[in-house]
Amino acid sequence: MTQITQEIGAGVPPMDSWTTRVGWTRRLQELGALTKPRITLMVVITTSIGFALGWSTVVADAHFPWVALIAALVGSGLSCMGASTLNQWWERDTDGMMERTRGRPLPAGRVSPTEALVLGLALSVAGSAALVLAGLPLAALLAGATVVSYVAIYTPLKRVTPLALWVGAAPGAAPPLLGFAAAAGRLDALAISVFALMYMWQVPHFLAIAWLHRHDYARAGLKMLPVVKPDGRSTFAQILITSIAMLPLGMAPTWLGYAGWTSFVVCTLAATWLLVGAIRLVFQPTRRQARRLFLITLAYLPIALAIISIDRV
C-alpha cells in the first residue's frame, strides 16, 4: 500500500509548484486584461481592412507584401495594447470611482501602477519598433502618434472638457490609415475618406455609452457631454448631426471612384439604419434606446468597412 501511494504521489507536482503556476497564470491574465483584448482585436481587424484597401491601389503585378502585412498587424496590435494599458494606468483613480470599472486590475489592486506603466511603455515602443524594422516608416509614425495623442492628450482632456471625445476620435480612427500606409507606403483620398468615416462613427457610438453611464462618469468627475449638460439636448444633437453625416461619408468612396455601387447602396442602408436609431433616441431618451443605438453602431462599422474593401472598382 505504501509503495502504491508513493508511485501515485511521484506523478503529482509539489503543492508549492502548482500554486506558483496558478499564480503566474492569474498574473498574466490580469496583465492581459490591461491590454483590452477585444478592442485590440477590432484594431487589428480595421488595420487589415486598411491594408487591403491600400494594397488594392498598388500595381497589380507586384508581389503581395506578407512581411508588411504581418508587421502592420503586430505593430497596430502592440500599439493598441500599450495605449490601453497606459490609459488605465493614468485613469486608475477615476476607474476606482466608477461601478463599471472599479473591478479592473489597477483600481482593484491586483496589478501595481509600476507594472502597468512598464508594460504599457514596452508594448507601445515594441509596436512602433516592429513597423520600423519592417521598413514601414509612415506606418510607424502613425502608430507612435496614435499612442501619444490617445494617452497624453485625450486621456487627461477627459477631465477638462467634453471636446475630448472629438480629440480621442482621431487616434481611434487611425488603424485603417496605418494599414493603408503599410501596404501602399502613402495615404490618398480613399484612406482619408475611410478615416473620416471611422472618425465620425465614434461620436454616436461613444455618446450612446456616455449617456448610458452618465452617472458613473459624473461620480468620477469626467467631463463627458451628458455630465456637463445633463438635460441631454446637446448630447442628442451631436448624435443626430453626426449620424446624418454618416450618410455622405459612406457614399464618399463611390463618389471618389474607389468603390462600386454595391458599396454605395449598402453603406447608405447601414447609415440610414443608424440614423433611425439616433432619431428614436432623440424622441425616446431611454436606456433601452441608447443601448439599441450602441449596438447598431457596433454592427455598422464592420458592415461599412467590409463592403468598401470588397466592392473595389
Features:
0% strand, mainly alpha, 313 residues, 78% helix
Question: What is the gist of this entry?
Answer:
By secondary structure, the protein is mainly α. It contains 15 helices and no strands.
Q: Can you describe this structure?
A:
The protein has helices at residues 2-10, 15-34, 37-56, 66-90, 92-95, 113-133, 137-157, 164-172, 174-184, 189-212, 214-220, 225-228, 233-255, 261-283, 287-310. It is mainly α and 313 residues long. The protein is flat and about 55 Å long.
Overall structural class, as computed from helix and strand content, comes to mainly alpha
Low-confidence stretches: 1-13
Task: Provide the residue-averaged pLDDT.
Answer: 90
Number-wise, the strands total 0
Principal-axes geometry comes out as flat
Helix and strand arrangement:
Blueprint lengths: L1 H9 L4 H20 L2 H20 L9 H25 L1 H4 L17 H21 L3 H21 L6 H9 L1 H11 L4 H24 L1 H7 L4 H4 L4 H23 L5 H23 L3 H24 L3
